[in-house]
Amino acid sequence: MPDFDIRFSRTRLVRDRTSDVSREWHYLDTGDELERVARAGGVEVVGTILAVHGNPTWSYLWRRLAAASLRAAEEGQPAWRVIAVDQLDMGFSARTGTTRTLPQRVTDLADFTNDLTLAGPVITLGHDWGGVISLGWAIDHPDLLAGVITLNTAVHHPDGVPIPAPLRLAGARGVLAASTVATPAFLETTLALAQPPLAPEVKDAFRAPYRSAAQRHGIGAFVADIPVDASHGSFAELQRIAAGVAELTVPALLLWGPKDPIFGDRYLDDLIDRLPHADVHRFEGAGHLIAEDRPYADAVLTWLGDNAEALVRGETTDSDVSATAVPDTAVAGSFTPLWTALEARRGDDDVAIIDMAARGGAGQKAERRVSWRQLADRVRSLAAGLDRAGVKKGQRVSVLVPPGPTLTAVIYACLRIGAVVVVADAGLGVRGLSRAVRGAWPDVVIGEVPGLSAARALGWPGMRISVARLPRASAKLLGVAHDLSEIARAGAAALRSNVSLPAEPAPEDPAAILFTSGSTGPAKGVAYTHRQLSALRDVLAAHFEVSADTGLVTGFAPFALLGPALGTRSATPDMDVSAPRTLTARAVAAAVRASDARIVFLSPAAILNVVATSGDLSSEDRRALEGVRTFLSTGAPVGEPLLAAAADLMPNAEPHTPYGMTECLLVTDVTLAGIRAVSSSPDRGVCVGSPIGSNRVLISALDDEGRAVGALSDEPGVLGEVVVSAPHLKTSYDRLWLTDRGAVRDIPVDGRWHRTGDVGHLDAEGRLWIEGRLPHVLATADGPVAPVGPEQQIEGAAGVRRAAVVGVGPEGLRQAVAIVEVVAEAVPSVARPGLASPELTADVRARTALPLVAVLVVPQLPTDIRHNSKIDRTRLSEWAERTLAGGRMTRP
């Protein structure tokens, strides 16, 4: 049995109090080995982890935790004894000849621990139905309990919702015995859920106790014991456990595989409601057998270390406070809610929002203008209506509405009543969007027909509200409960009847979950409080001197919603915001002309097409653009040539290219003049300027292997990971405890900080230079090399439009390869990928001191799915490895 340490295997006769018969239990116990380590080195055994498997596994499931805990003790860390039982009728424990129900199994576990004279502190750990049983033991032993950990499990099933299909099938009359006992079908199906697939020898280990039908009786009994409704004999016990879990205040950890077809995110959401203080981590891509799919043991030991004092001393957590609601004195101070400026202009009939992408009848363009009075009234009516429809403070509302007046009104209404807005960009694609929505597990989904159709087809959770009123048949088909017109009418009627809006949310209450672009891995939900959103508004207003008369044109979705918060009118150009390259120069000019805007926000990908289509501008368009005073490109660093080209279209505007990310939307800023000022003595990378306002930027130096391990410093010239702090920095990543921990852990500097994953350095004037992403750093024999600096040098070669520097070879000895995208007119013979010509290779090598083992050419460098300006270096590195190893010359 792979990874199975026979030293931990034990058997014990335990008296069954209900039948007064002694039963033999098999279990794993690291206690004796820990005592040996303690005698040798004085390591303290601080407590016990009581691990309970589910159906149809056995204690072998916990083998890696047992081994990892012993290794930790041998390395001198405080030791946790691991006791992992085989439940009766399961694993290598006794076959009782009886049917063990849920209350009986909770009693069985108590009999075992009583016989063992188990002392506290104890942390329970469970998976599948073992999770329920372990939690039952937990609530029955408050004097011993120090904490709870669960992998995919459930303590409650909502009324009116069928149990998961695999369990319905396995438990069906005529199928149960055949699929669970007479044949190993249920066992084999469970083992097949592992992602990636289990090794054959690991599967054999899980099969070992269940070779015959007689040995599989417990598997069938477990399935039969699922309490599908109140008539089931175990229903009352499940209800008791569910209620008891909600009263637990000990530290808690929930580790989850979201691809589980049985215990999906619905059950995780329920557990979070009951344990709001829990640390939660969803392992994207993992499924039901999360203990086999992902390094859960490392996560458990990490959590034990982080919470050691509370666990050992038996401290409790305020269950009314989410673990993600991190108090921060650095952002304390005055607070003005995001909707204050909108309320202040409630009696104003001036224009607040102009939607240039609006569509009228037959899909024809129909510019839409909304006044401050109309917008404020709509927000209040929707807020009151949503409250009457049952949307309450703290509930999550996924908004699948394109930018424009409707999205703005919905978001401000949700914020006003304290609902948490979930915003995921349609540019993530159907799979990415579905993963984001299901991961956030909203209580409400508000959308147009395409979004609601996806919600229906893909099984997204939440009450569904349609933007438009739908025919009754369509509404029923899509599961729509309300439409926004109905919601607003009900809210307006309530307000006319002097019904008050709910109390305003507090500054530290959760406000929004904004999903990242997915350009550096699966999109992550970034959690913001009301204070943090308001701080973003404040830094934007102060730095760019936004006033009521400024006016904004926003071709960058995150900022399209800030106009009302800033108290200034905003216009959305005619474009598909999920596809930035659909924005044209004429569309920008039309939006500026319509709104008399003085500030224009665009993403780098949008600028590319705006510049490319500038030849279509009329004289009237150019005159409109001459009125712009500030131009911002946000979303990725922009080089001087592109920024200068955009500046030519807006000759009276000061071009800015702020640096930021979803986790902290504005960090630093640099103007075109600032970029040109440093061009006479160019540095490595792209200059993104100095921190804005009270923001702070420090660098964690890289070691020889390219890891950011250095103490945070502002020393000039040091290559390392960029670490930022700001009043508007996010609270956490939603349901990604490990990811969030890695982003902020072990930073001995006051305030909240975020490791950005970007690499770069500070210059002597405190300006930040971005040199690439941390995963793209080449760990060479001469030390770490960031790609952007050499790429900039290479892009000076004749005929080269863009360049990417990637690594090939083993880690620590990576060799650099240059991959260049050439200008067709300059190098017309390049129609497919391949080795560069000797002349181009020589030119490229002459421009950089970085030794290059090869120079490859491609017609076009691949970019990530959202930011067309971000080169996909990971994909290029894999392609270069294959190509230089003699693989077929395909496009990367």
Write the layout of secondary structure elements.
Blueprint: E1 9-16, E2 21-29, H1 31-41, E3 45-52, H2 63-74, E4 79-85, H3 102-115, E5 122-126, H4 129-140, E6 145-150, H5 165-171, H6 176-182, H7 185-191, H8 200-207, H9 217-224, H10 235-245, E7 252-256, H11 265-274, E8 279-282, H12 290-293, H13 296-306, H14 308-313, H15 340-344, E9 351-355, E10 368-371, H16 372-388, E11 396-400, H17 405-417, E12 420-423, H18 429-440, E13 444-447, H19 449-458, E14 463-466, H20 472-478, E15 480-483, H21 484-496, E16 510-515, E17 525-529, H22 530-544, E18 552-554, H23 557-560, H24 563-566, E19 570-572, H25 585-595, E20 599-602, H26 604-612, H27 619-625, E21 630-633, H28 640-649, E22 654-656, E23 659-661, E24 664-669, H29 672-679, E25 686-691, E26 696-702, E27 708-713, E28 720-725, E29 732-733, H30 737-744, E30 754-762, E31 768-773, E32 778-780, E33 783-785, H31 788-794, E34 800-808, E35 815-822, E36 834-835, H32 838-846, E37 852-858, H33 873-884
Parallel strand pairs: 3-4, 3-5, 5-6, 6-7, 7-8, 9-19, 11-12, 11-13, 12-16, 13-14, 14-15, 18-19, 18-20, 20-21, 21-22, 35-37
Antiparallel strand pairs: 1-2, 2-4, 9-10, 16-17, 17-29, 23-24, 24-25, 25-31, 26-27, 26-28, 28-30, 30-31, 32-33, 34-35, 36-37
Description:
The protein has 892 residues and is an alpha/beta fold. It folds into four domains: 6-160 and 229-312, Alpha/Beta hydrolase fold, catalytic domain (Rossmann fold, 3-Layer(aba) Sandwich); 340-551, Rossmann fold (3-Layer(aba) Sandwich), CATH 3.40.50.12780; 658-775, Luciferase, domain 3, CATH 2.30.38; 777-884, ANL, C-terminal domain (GMP Synthetase, Chain A, domain 3, 2-Layer Sandwich), CATH 3.30.300.30. The strands form six sheets. An eight-stranded mixed beta sheet has the order 1-2-4-3-5-6-7-8, with helices on both faces. Strands 15-14-13-11-12-16-17-29 form an eight-stranded mixed beta sheet, with helices on both faces. An eight-stranded antiparallel beta sheet has the order 23-24-25-31-30-28-26-27. Strand 5, helix 4 (129-140) and strand 6 (145-150) form a beta-alpha-beta unit. It starts with 8 loop residues before the first strand and ends in an 8-residue tail after the last helix. 53% of the residues are buried.
